[in-house]
Structure formats: C-alpha cells, structure tokens
Write a structure and sequence with these properties.
The structure is a homodimer.
Chain A lengths: L19 H8 L10 H7 L6 H24 L2 H31 L8 H10 L5 H31 L1 H7 L1 H11 L2 H6 L2 H5 L4 H8 L15 H4 L6 H21 L6 H14 L5
Helix pairs in contact in A: 1-3, 4-5, 4-6, 4-8, 5-6, 6-7, 6-8, 7-8, 7-13, 13-14
Chain lengths: 279, 279
Amino acid sequence: MSDEDPSDSGWFEGTDREDAEAVATAIRGESADAPFDWPTRAVETGFADDENDYYSLLHGATMRVTREAIREREQSDDQQLKRTIRAMDDCQRVANELAERVSEWAKSKREDAGAGVEYTRQLADEDDADESLVSLACRVRDLDDEAADLRRHVERTAPEVAPNLSALAGPVLAARLVALAGGLEALARKPAGTVQVLGAEEALFAHLRGHAPSPKHGVIYAHEAVQGTHPEHRGSAARALAGKLTIAARVDHYSGERKPELDAQLAERIDRIQEREVE
Amino acid sequence: MSDEDPSDSGWFEGTDREDAEAVATAIRGESADAPFDWPTRAVETGFADDENDYYSLLHGATMRVTREAIREREQSDDQQLKRTIRAMDDCQRVANELAERVSEWAKSKREDAGAGVEYTRQLADEDDADESLVSLACRVRDLDDEAADLRRHVERTAPEVAPNLSALAGPVLAARLVALAGGLEALARKPAGTVQVLGAEEALFAHLRGHAPSPKHGVIYAHEAVQGTHPEHRGSAARALAGKLTIAARVDHYSGERKPELDAQLAERIDRIQEREVE
C-alpha cells in the first residue's frame, strides 16, 4: 500500500490470508502516518470476518515477522563473530582444564611428566601402553587445534565485520569487545567509559559496592597500548584507547568505511602518554 | 643387616655410598628394635666422613625412598581407577558445556536446532556449510566417545580392584567412592556414616554450620537401593547400603576375596526397608 493513501487500503491489502508468508511480507516494512480504524476497514473489504478474526491474523503475522527479524539479526556477521569467539574461548578453557587432568594422571605413571597443553600435545604423539591417558591427551590436542581454527576464523572475519575496530584493537580483541557488548550495534552505543571496563564487570561491581578501587581496564588490558605503558600511566592509556575504540566501533556500525587516520591518532596519543615521566 | 644385631652394623652397611639407588634399597625395609648411635658408628666404620656427612647421606637416601614409595602407591590399581573415573567425569562435563555452546550457536543459524549432546552428535554427522559449527560439534562427539571409552575402562577394572564393592555398588559407583575417598585403603578406613555422605560434602558442611538438615546420601544416591525406595525411607536405605559398602571395601582392601553373601545380605535388608509402610 506504499504509494496510496493508507486509509484507502488495509495492512494486508491484496494478499491471500491463507498464505502466512505473504501476509508477513505484506506487513513488514509497511507504515502509516496516521492512525486509522484498520479492523473496521478489514471487515468492510471482506478480508477479515470480524474484529477478533482481524486481530488474530495480525497477531500471527507480526509474530512471524518478529521471528524472522530475530533470525536475520542472529545470522548477521557480528552475531556470528560473537559466537565464534565464545566457542574459541570455551575450547581453550576446556583444553586447559583437561590438560591439567592429563598432567596429574601422567605424573602418577611416569617421572618425566610435564604440565599444560604443550606437554599434553607431546604425550598425544606418543605411541604408548597407557591407552586411556594417551587417548585423553589426543582429545586435548584436538580441542587446542579447534581453538586455533576458531582463532583463524575470527582473524579472517573480524576485519570484515568491524574494519576500524579490528585495525585498532587487533581482530581477536575486537571480536571479544563485540561479544562482551552483545553485538556491534550494542558496542557502538556504549560510552567510552563502559568500553574501557568491558570484561572487568566483577571488579566494577565490587567497586560500586564500595569494596574496591574502580577498575582501570577490562579486556583491553591485553592491548599493547596498555601493556606497553608504565603501570602509573596505564589508566590514562586505557582511557585513551577505549575512547578511540568506541569511535572505531561507531564508524564501523554506522558507516562501515575504513578510516586509517584513527590508527595514527591512537598511536600518537599513546606515544605521548608513554613519554610521560614516571615518579 | 636384617639377621645381625643392628648395633653391629650401620644402616648403609655394605653399600657403595656413590650408588644412590643401592643406598636407598639398603635403607628401605630395614628396622631396628632399639635406638643406637648410628652417626658415630657410620664415622667409625669409615662410611661417612663426619656426622654432617652422615645426615646428608641419610637425607638423600630417605627422600629417594619416599619418592619411590609414593610412585609405587600412585601406580597402584585403585589410584589408576581414581584417575580414570575423574577423567571420565571431566570429559562428560566438558562435552555437556560445549554442547550448550553448539546448541546456542546452531539456534542462531537454523530453525530446527535442538539441544544437548544428542543433538550435537547429529549435527556432527551432517555435511554442512557451517564449517566451524560442525567442527565444534565433532569435538563434542569425540569427548562424549572418550567418556564412554573411559566408562568401559572403569567397568572392566573396578571389579578387579574392588570385587565386592563393585558387585554391590556397580563398577562406576564403586570407582566414584574410591575416587572420593582418595583410594581403596582410605575408603576401607572410613566409618559407614562417612561413606554414606561421600560426595555430599557441601550439604554436610552446611549442616555442620547449622544451616541445613544433615544429608541422607552422597553419590550412593545413584544406587537402586536408594532410588527404588520411597523418599520417606531413603535415609534408612542409604544407611543400610553405606554399611554394606563399607564392609565390602574393607574385605576388598584387606583380603581381596569375593564374598557373594554380602550381595544377598544387602538385597534382603533393602527388601525389608522397601516393604515398610508409607504414611
């Protein structure tokens, strides 16, 4: 009904009421500038039997449209990036947990047993009588490989989803920020001060309850701008970094264009902070 | 020095002090009925240069012996059974955790996504475009397979390690009790009341702090004697079961002989409890 005066037709004008998909498509993207007595119109044009019938049709159609919109949103690249990095973190975590179990077990059997995923990978390559132990070690190796595969996937897709954020933060940290915010749009809407402490929620809530100093940084701690700055000035570095990352996320979400000047601005800002004197 | 008067010789009599293994073997299993001035004797016989030298040799030898004893104990069958069931539980737990992640991810991509390890196994068999998702599902399937392999290993070895306990409790529950106690000997030394609540430590400590009723059962909850009894009489059933399991563990540790009469006694006792009237 887009081109006509909305009062001339109903929301479902020209669709077959038995065809749920067509009805949903008809309602999606439609809009009207003014309210109008749609139920009466639908009954008058013979589309609905009565007002209840009209509302029941409308309910069905809007629910369908909502489900479709949610699915489309879920399938969007930033949501898939979020899933990928969460899966990567899970694989890494359980690989570490199981490696600890393998190492404990190995120590009960042999003097030269080491620890960690690295030792477990060595053990997995051994052709050994300790069948169960080596088999478990192989699973740990597979999980570690899976985490590496997922990391490569993140490294490939993050620059497509958020080019500026990935350039400034590196793809893995960019993906982590998107995941923590719940999506690129959600990240773009957050103030810089929130982005600065994403991933430090526990410390932040402890601070809000009055138990602890305010956290200086969350996951952006991993960034070289923070790592490479003397602890005394890390708060400043984290603040400057979070500010630029927030701008990058906004550019990525609202325009999608790559702005290399952001990288230079961040580098210059961090250089100046790192040049400050330390007492 | 076993056959001689201990005061006639030193602890290391007749061994080469440079041969650490021989010195350790010499000291292991030796005993003396009365104290004696061993350091002086060692210096007199020319084995040690002085008292400090003697104690330093003794320290090295006893440390070595202790390490060997620990290793032997760790390699014992009950300790290996403990490791196996812990690894099995770990695999099952992380398979469930990762299956949850897979299911979340799958739901963002397809309408018909299910949940749990079972759905993840189905997904792993699919030849699909969602490469990362299916690859993660395969890891979950492998972990689930690993847990099943370890369960078979437990089912095979528990009856060898603890024949009576395995006959009464089933091999998996028997292994779980051995693991919770820290070994078969440790389990055999525990009173029945402790065996009854093994695995319910949290509830027990809450009770001891006065916050909660005393737990009726720990992992023995899984046994059919408890499961098949009306909740009103489950405390009695758990007590009776724990009593018999404790006896079984003691027979297994101290004699190792299979006593089929224990099974009959337990069955009879549980039958009588289950026949009790329920209010």
